[in-house]
Amino acid sequence: MKAEMATASANPACSGATPHDVERVRADFPILQRVVNGKTLAYLDNAATAQKPNAVIDAICQYYRTSNANIHRGVHRLSIEATEAYEQARGKVQRFIGAKRPQEIVFVRSATEAINLVAQAYARPKLTAGDEILITTMEHHSNIVPWQILCEQTGAVLRVAPITDAGELDLDEFEKLLGPRTRIAAVTHISNALGTINPVRDLVEMAHGHGVPVLIDGAQAAPHLPIDVAAIGCDFYTITGHKMFGPTGIGALYGRHELLDAMEPYQGGGEMILSVTFEKTTYNKVPHKFEAGTPHIAGAIGMGAAVDYLEAIGLDRIGAHEHELLRYTTETLSAIPGVRLVGTAKNKAAVVSFLVGDVHPHDVGTILDQEGIAVRTGHHCAQPVMERFGIAATVRASLALYNTPAEIDRLTAAVAKVQEVFN
Ligand SMILES: Cc1ncc(COP(=O)(O)O)c(C=O)c1O
Predict the structure, then answer these.
(1) What is the mean pLDDT of residues 344-357?
(2) Region(s) of the chain under CATH 3.40.640.10
């Protein structure tokens, strides 16, 4: 019965003329062939990091094999090729998130670095003691701690908009917290712990209505939703390569051109200057002003390849597939007695956080690992979310374009087994 169900919904994104061919997608990811504890790997930890398709692995290898050189500074053939490939990757990211020009894309190490950059280079010079920074309860530590550091440095105050029992942002409270001293709001697009998709366009409109600029943390959104920063209207948007099937150690910050242009550099070094004397240094134009030192060239190229890969499949099709998987996972998991879902927002990405009776999430994770199923257990770098729900940790299954209903059947069977063993 279960297998039948799995087959019936094996291509859940069949709505259009071109279905999401999940088996073909899986063949692009060599790691999915791995056997773990005698079972084929079921990788359900995509919110932590996503696996890499051959197209990304090959693009990185190809760069190192044929074009490796430093960029923006050589006149030789390899340096020109490497520079072109790096700048092409910038153009791909620009188009992928709907930025108007490539100069609005700064390559950084990660979403974390992008947020720190905005905190230090944009917000810090504007803050005096008593000014306010608005975030929400559902932020990842990356979108909390940089602002706390900034508060310590400047005497600014961190304000936190609450979330409901379903894990949705309380929009009225958010608006109430936008006051005359709010200098910036920083909100996640998708919660990594709860899966909640925030109405970012509305939030930006609200904040702008109070003259408050907005940073959207899109680390979890980029692999799952079409992103259009122009339509969202945000001032800054951050993404991270490894969660969108690209390499680790690379991410991108989108910033409105006039804001980036007016900002002081974040770090000093090579590449970010026009001229240096001991008396005076003049800085390079954006985005290079923010890319001090030799960047992660292979990483940017790999991220560009990941963008190509996602676009070739289509974010709408990926979204439809994941939506169906989310529905199936929610339905089957919550049918197991004793399973409690944490995060039940109406508008959700395919992240399912749950508890199995009183069983410690690490024990659940260990049993799932024995079945070859990789999930995340713990606080998911979102301890305030855990505190909000009065728990220390959850088990989190986070799904992606290559996951199948059959893998969800394996998950639910293993969770049912946990329930039997412990209760
Ligand atoms: C919502 C969210 N923001 C930011 C980050 C930080 O991403 P990175 O570690 O790549 O900087 C994460 C990572 O889990 C995340 O889930």
Answers:
(1) 98
(2) 56-312
Please report the beta strands in 301-393, taking only residues with DSSP state E, as ranges in sequence order: 339-342, 351-356, 373-374, 376-378
Average pLDDT, the chain: 94
pLDDT at 73: 81
**Domain 18-47+314-421 superfamily per CATH:** Aspartate Aminotransferase, domain 1 (3.90.1150.10)
**Confidence class for position 18, pLDDT limits 50, 70, 90:** low
What stretch(es) of the chain map to CATH 3.90.1150.10? Answer: 18-47+314-421
Q: What is the mean pLDDT of residues 131-135?
A: 98
Q: What is the CATH number of domain 56-312?
A: 3.40.640.10
What's the pLDDT at 9? 35
Q: Taking Cα atoms as reference points, which of 134, 222, 142 lies closest to residue 180?
A: 134
| Cβ-proximal residues to 267 (8 Å cutoff; 6+ apart), any chain | 290, 292, 293
User: CA 295, CA 349: separation in Å to the nearest integer?
Assistant: 32
How far is residue 13's CA from residue 6's CA, in Å, rounded to a whole number?
13
Contacts of 297 (CB under 8 A, 6+ apart): 63, 68, 70, 71, 82, 85, 86
pLDDT value of position 236: 99
Atom from ligand 1 closest to the CA of residue 243: 10
Q: What is the pTM of this model?
A: 0.95
Return the residue whose CA atom lies nearest to atom 12 of ligand 1: 219
Q: Which atom of ligand 1 is nearest to the CA of 113?
A: 11
Instruction: Catalogue the active-site residues.
Output: 381
Helices vs strands, H then E, count in the chain: 15, 17
Q: Is the pLDDT of residue 52 over 90?
A: yes
Q: Tell me, what's the pLDDT at 421?
A: 87
Mutate to test the pocket of ligand 1, among 220, 303, 383 (most ligand atoms within 8 A of CB): 220
